[in-house]
Structures are given as C-alpha cells and as structure tokens.
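Supplementary Note 3. Input sequence used for the single-chain structure prediction.
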Amino acid sequence: PPRSTLFPYTTLFRSTIVDSYQESRSAKIPEYRPQFNEMIKRLESGEADAILCWRLHRLARNPVDGGKLIWLVQKGLKIYTPRRTYTVEDIAALYDEFSRAHIFINDLRRDTMEGTKTKLLQGKAPLHAPPGYRNTPEKPQGAREILVDEQRFPIVRKMWDLLLT
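The predicted structure, written as discrete structure tokens, is reproduced below.
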C-alpha cells in the first residue's frame, strides 16, 4: 500500500500484524491515551514483540510513556519506523528522541499560550471565526483578523432571527 496508508498509526506484530492503533488524544499527558495503554498491556503480556509506527515522537511526548517504551525495548521490544529500527542497542537514541518530543510539546504549549495572551492584549479574539464570519488567512500569523463573511452572515443572522421569534 502507499506509504500514507501504511504508517498512519501504530501497529503491533510478531511475525504477523496483531493489531493497529490510531489515537487522536494528546500524548503530552501520561496515562491519558486508552489506546496507548492497551497497546502497552498487550506488549507486556507478550502478545507482540514489535511496534511499527510512522514517527517515534508520535508514541510518547511525556517522560512516563517514553519510559515505558524504553523499558520494553530493554526487555526485547523492537520499534520500527520508516527511518530506523530501534532495539536494545539504541536506548540512548530513544532517550534523545523522546526527550526532544517532550521539549517540543512543552515549547509548543508555551508559544501557543504566549500568542493567545498577545492577541487578547491587542483586543483580538484568539479563535477560529464563528459561523457567519471568516478569518483572514492572507495576513501573516499574529496579524489575522475575524471579519464578517458577506455571503454567510445574512444566512446565519436570519437563522438567529427565526430562532428568536
């Protein structure tokens, strides 16, 4: 299959694929992802001996989840990505990758919060445009505005007028 359909999620396998997991919850908070927790339990029980994933940083962005995976690799788990296979000899690389992912997510949160605070101080709404309005993507990030959508606003206004009567 094409690469985009082969690696969009995590796959457990021994000699054949045991299961596939796709989770949209944030990996920033430990113990927050039920699919990940189920995968870890299955790996610990010996149902699978390897993980196939698109990018290593998609597995763990917090030290707890990263530590669980590193511990399993020390016990024989292999993690396959399109770029590299991680085995017990690659523990230092796993620590490095997972710590970079953790730092990235913390920096992203801090930068997002700072951008939100700046927009609020400028009197701008730090959100996507509600129905009947539009964002101005043609402006650079940080200078974008929410404007009336000339096509949709009258329809949304009529909807509210009808609702109120």
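The two ends are 55 Å apart (CA to CA). Residues 15 and 60 are 24 Å apart (CA to CA).
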